[in-house]
Amino acid sequence: MNLSKREFLQLLGAGSVAGLGLGRHDGAGAAGAVDAMYALPRFGNVSLLHMTDCHAQLKPLYFREPSVNIGLGSMRGKVPHLVGEQLLKAAGVAPGTRVAHALTHLDFDRAAQRYGKVGGFAHLATLVKQLKASRPGALLLDGGDTWQGSATSLWTQAQDMVDACKLLGVDVMTGHWEFTYGMERVKEIIDKDFAGRVEFVAQNVKTADFGDPVFKPYVMREINGVPCAIVGQAFPYTPIANPRYMVADWTFGIQDDNLQRVVDEARAKGAQVVVVLSHNGMDVDLKMASRVRGVDAILGGHTHDGTPMPTLVSNAGGQTIVVNGGSNGKFLGVLDFEIKGKKVSDFRYRLLPVFSDLIPADREMDALIARIRAPYEAKLSETLAHTDGTLYRRGNFNGTGDQLLLDALMEVQDAPIAFSPGFRWGTSLLPGQPITREWLMDMTATTYSYATVTPMSGEMLKTVLEDVCDNLFNPDPYYQQGGDMVRVGGLQYACDPTAAMGQRIQDMRLDGKPIEAGRTYKVAGWAPVSEEARSAGNKPVWEVIEPWLKSRKVVAARAPEAPVLKNVAPNPGLA
Question: Given strand 491-495, what is the order of strands in its sheet?
């Protein structure tokens, strides 16, 4: 795709970023808000709808966006490393509006109470139907991390999400956390449930023995007479970030050389539009867009960044649009192309927040969700405690939800130090809300969530922290795995994200005393990726934390333990 910078700025000036006008209608009543948000004029002749990283959240929820998403070097001050006022300023969004609440952490408690919950598949289904009706031939693309993240997805082995996605009308998807159900379960769903309904694509997943494709690398679909290729890019670091034994016969990786061959093949077969449905994470997508030519757009996921405006990346073949679609069913992206002369001549992109109080629930989807949840409803809704403060997860270093998990693990496991993985999924609670079993599962539900107690030397503690920190702050995006920093309880430390690998973690202390490299420390944790852990006999982490919650009844507000940051502030990704 070839657009000049002037043409791109004209697109933005014409209001190509969705919902940004909504702040002008916040006082216009529900009808005015609905029209301003969702009445999108049709544009062009090819339309793609994009959802990603819903993490099995079928019901409306609260979700607090991060106040810390640091960008360094060339990424400083650029999407997706903008938070709070800086993101609103870049997107042209008025503070205090619905869209400001959807995009940022600002005044979260008050805004959440005012604007209500977001997401929910029944509300998303209504929006998808509306958009597909107004855009004949539009495809719904699912960027993955769909089958994992809730109690019902774990207990049904993802069948709840498979059934919901078929009813939602997903046309094409790729994956990441899907693979943690194991190779056999993934193939069973694709070969049986998805047959003739949903295409699963991933150009970068191959057999470990002969390097054969495990999934279709791409699919061709004709939209209003225009041949379009949808190329799949699964999470490249699945065997590292998750247990390797779950995908033992498959290899992953970024594989942009192979991606180029796939794109060239699709173009040779007549594709006038080529889109990559990616689960790389946005920083990786931006680099990949600069290296692979012939891609019109990358619709990305994994890092949960809701990007209200597209980024145009130049490469040898022209320019590629890069966007990321947020998480938890909170957003739906709409990408409209105008095709002239067998190529993209213009586009519009909109990121629509899914406010469940503005969008009526689709009856058929609502009924399906009720049937899915019925056998588990009493168990899900059981109150374990109440929270005095807001509980959330997102942020580069910690969140109050993870702090709760850390505090519980240290006390129950009698360990002075605790680690909690830097996962970005998990829902939020407002002050005074009940902490239900469902919320605890929203924060911990994986197929390998074993609680552990491990003796670790001071040297190993530093090695672990340095390794995870490098995954987050390596200056080369291709070495970033897209999660956040491991959450740390009990242990104090300083972090210099600008330092070289092995030198970022400094001044480690426990109870004010320096950590000794040769001393052994007792460390509680959960979600080990080693194969040995699954046969060690450890309890699931929720069975460790649930009694702790019940014994408290009311959980006091948590202040997240975070490192002292060096050489970072001021930074537009640090509120």
Answer: 513-514, 505-510, 491-495, 564-565
